[in-house]
User: Fold this.
Amino acid sequence: MSFKELLIINLSLFGAYLIDSSIISFVNQSFVEISTVYLVFFYWSYAAPQQFTLALVILSGILLDFLTASFIGTHTLIFIFFSLVFRSYAYRLRLFSHLQIALIIALLSSIGFTFKYLFIYPEGYLYSKLIFNFFSTIIFWPLIFGICRYLRRHYAYTIK
Amino acid sequence: MASGTPLKFSRFSYIFFIVCFSVILFFDSKNNVFSSLRVIQASIVITSDLLVNQTKNFFSSVYVSQTEKQKLKKEARELKNKYEALLAKNFFLESNAPNIESQSMRSNPTSAKIVNFNAYKYICCGVHEMLISKGAPLFRPVLNASGLIGQLVERQGNLGKILLLSSSKHFLPVLIGSSYCNASGKGIPMTISCRTDVSEINETIFRGQLVYTSGLGGIFPKGLKVGDVKEITLLGDAAEIVIELAADPRISPNVYIIEEA
Assistant:
């Protein structure tokens, strides 16, 4: 993987983080939290499981922990877990339809979300937030999938 | 059916790092081990917010001030035009013009813009002309904010040509006190002169005496202020009277045409 492709993956994650924080501050509702970062992460794990290595996963996780001022390891642990799942089943997931993949991703996102809130920030945990996150993940997945695929095909074409 | 995928990777390393980061997370959440990182993050966020806000404020203030400036410029231009139009209108009221009966002359004159005026030719040469943006009916008096400047002599498409009072081709019968004199331009800026027999001068003419149109030419109505006497030279039985014009055609780009004289 070239530096350019590494940069594109990290920039897409950073962009997703900016979108997340902008939406949260713009909507300003307690139950609204969209995990675009997770969706982008899922895309790269799904589309490039061989290139999206463990080191890159850890680096992305630590950077996200730093950016969100979370405890170190919060997102890193979630990312490593997701990466393990995707690396194990990446090619088999491709047999599923987009809706099925969206459901699986929404489920994984909810697991990550629950882990983050229930174990580390229990004071911020709301069922409405979890439900909103689940459905927003299903809705936004095709969009994020399309954008990231466009990026991969036009700027990181060696990632197959 | 294969239980795994063709990908070669070590699950052990993943599990190892999961354990490692679980320990790090535990210590960080209990003892704030990496609190300094969060402080750095907070300072970066605050600084970037400040920078973004400052930059945004700067550009918005520049935009606002530019817009205000443009607005004020436009307003000033409009006010200046209105003021000049009022000055031109006031010119009639100030003039000693009892014979101006037409009410239309006292109403707003038609305004036009100077589109071509050769200032070099105005200073150097005999023929003083300018082109304006409106081709009104010919042989109408034209004035600007400072007074009478000439007459409309030609139409060129949508433009009109003005022959200035100071042009060597222009003749203007004037009234100095109660004496008539046929003045003409000499090609000298803001100056006209007339020659008359001393016997035809009815009363004493002195420097600074106001000069008005006589109304004899048929173009300029009687009683409009032309200028004042600058110099009187006696040449035997004749007298050469130099008149300094009141109006300077160079002061403004706006001119006003009296369409009904």
Q: What stands out?
A: Helices of chain A lie at 3-27, 36-47, 54-67, 74-93, 98-120, 127-155. The domain at 3-155 of chain A is CATH 1.10.1760 (Arp2/3 complex 21 kDa subunit ARPC3). The first helix of chain A runs from residue 3 to 27.
